[in-house]
Every structure is written in structure tokens, then in C-alpha cells.
Amino acid sequence: MVAVGGSSSGLFLELEGSTLVVSRLSPGATLTEIARLASPVAAGFDAVERPGGGAIVAGRVRSPDRAWTTFALDAAGKVVALRRGTISDALRGRPQLVAHPGGALVVDEDGRRVAWLDAQGALLAEAAWPPEASAAVCIDGRPMPKLVPSVQPGLFVTSTAASYDGTCASVFGYGADGSFRW
Question: Mean pLDDT across the stretch 99-112?
Fold first, then answer.
């Protein structure tokens, strides 16, 4: 199950067997089912708000080859773009999607690889996350990376964290102005 925000309402995505159930999530937390479709993804997918409404989704396909698939849903729960096998198998484990201006980032479970997607879920770039990080020993999260994904696909920029050395971090995102936030 994944909940995705929106400007006036969000989407709630859940698997029921091989069916992806898409529900509208109201500001009062009421769910209204709006679509049922043959799920392009298996359990372990993630999703983020799509610019203009709906969601960008990434995960492994339900077939034995377990290739990556990405797709976009509009605000009515309709698939508007579906792509299979665009992300390489170098991304491992469960994906973590992070909304960014114009689309989403897909970060692998180990935080070692990143894929940049546009608002339709199309792959723009994919790269290894540079390994340089603070020397912190973290109970929760991981050592703060020196370089972070840029809004520009395929590039990394120096972290603007106030204190890089000895810092741990977990979830990250982008501000409305495109700035990177922890």
C-alpha cells in the first residue's frame, strides 16, 4: 500500500492479488475507489505525486523475469504511460521514490544507485550514487552523503548540509524551489 499526496486530494494504491486498486484519498482521509486494473507491478512498489496530479509508480513486474517497470497514473487512476525494463537491474531491492521537480527519483534499497524519471515515468538518466559520505556511525539512517542527486538528470551536487561530518540522514526530498532537503 502506498499513499500519494496531491494539491486537493491524493491517491491510495494497494494490491489485491494481481489487481491494483486505486482510491482517491480526501483531505479528511476518506477513501473512494476510482479504478481497478491488472497490476503492472508486484508487491514492493513505491509511488510519488505526479506533477499535475496522479502518481508516478516504480517497481518490479509480476512476471518471472522481475524486470523494472515504471508508469504514470492520472488523477482519475488511469494509466497514461507504462514502460517496462527501462531501469537497469543494477538498482537492487525495494525502490524508494522521491518526488523532484518534473518527475521522480528512484533510489535503490541500499542507496547506491539513482534513476531520474520524468512526469510520465520515462527514464531520463541512471547513475551510481558516489560513495563519499560522512564518517558518522548511525543507529538510524545512514551517513550523510557528500554528493546528492541534482534536479538535472544524471548529475550529483555537493550537499548543502550545515554539518557534513558526523551527520546521519534518512529520508530526503526537494523543496518547491528545487532545493535538496533532508
Answer: 89
Give the dihedral sign, CA 47/116/108/100.
Answer: negative
CA quadruple 47, 48, 54, 59: dihedral, nearest 10: -20
Query: At residue 173, what is the residue type?
Result: G
Q: Reading across the β-sheet that carries 10-16, which strands appear in turn?
A: 2-4, 10-16, 19-25, 31-38
Q: Which helix (H) or strand (E) holds 77?
A: none
Query: By three-state DSSP, how is residue 158 classified?
Result: strand
Question: Which pTM value belongs to this model?
Answer: 0.89
pLDDT tens string 29-41: 899 999 999 999 9
Segment 79-105 mean pLDDT = 89
For residue 167, report the phi and psi dihedrals to the nearest 5 degrees: -100, 140
Distance CA 178, CA 46 (A): 21
Please say whether the beta carbons of 130 and 121 come within 8 A: no
Read off the pLDDT of each residue in 101-129 and give the average, rounded to a whole number: 93
Q: Which amino acid is at 70?
A: T
What's the whole-number average pLDDT of the chain?
Answer: 88
Give the separation between CA 39 and CA 79, rounded to whole angstroms: 10
Q: Are 95 and 108 in contact (CB under 8 A)?
A: yes
Unique residue bearing C-alpha cell 555537493: 158
